[in-house]
Amino acid sequence: MSKYKRVMVKLSGEMLGESSGGIDAGRLQDVCRSLKEVIDEGIQIALVIGGGNFWRFKDQKELVLDRVVSDTMGMLATVMNALAVREELERIGVRAKAYSSLRVPGVLKEFMPRCARNSFADHDVVLCAGGTGNPYFTTDSAAALRALELKCDLLLKATKVDFVCDRDPKKHADAKTFEELSYQQVLEMGLEVMDLSAISLCMENALPILVFNMNGEGNLLRAARGERVGTLIS
Asked: 51, 165, 187, 193: most buried, per Cβ within 10 A?
């Protein structure tokens, strides 16, 4: 039995495919099957997906694009990912509704908090694409903002690591792992969990964050249930 009714899941674009490599069919299917496991438990899901599998500003600096233009391209990449996830979810029997903060008429409806919240009455998953709709903000910030607007009980930050560490465990064998952290500790230690604006927003509104390894079998379901998996920030 889950302690949470509605969770926000933040996925990086790389969960769907390699950096700038588009969408891998197998990864897309695995992600959607994991989401379905959570839905089958009766837990509602809001979902924010990054666009790094198509475009990311920091990886494309050699093109010397204006930051606003590059960030807009990244937001469009999240729209493509949301469309793919929505279609795969519906193919496997999960009702899904997608919105975009970046206006893309004829493709997705514009995100409005009240309309998106009302969608939970008829849909199991509400996808929030387009980041915040503004440049200079990451999809981490978008996930924190949308989680609050949609009245989610928990923000699930899906990663490729089991716990938050004080240093990169791949480079430092003595890296310290954390099962629990306060928001203030994350800020003071400069831990690269989410961007600082996302952490601050969650702290100001007492929204807990669970950082976990999405690649672990059944980990998303355990995380959504409130089981001890990954690092809890509260």
From this structure: 51
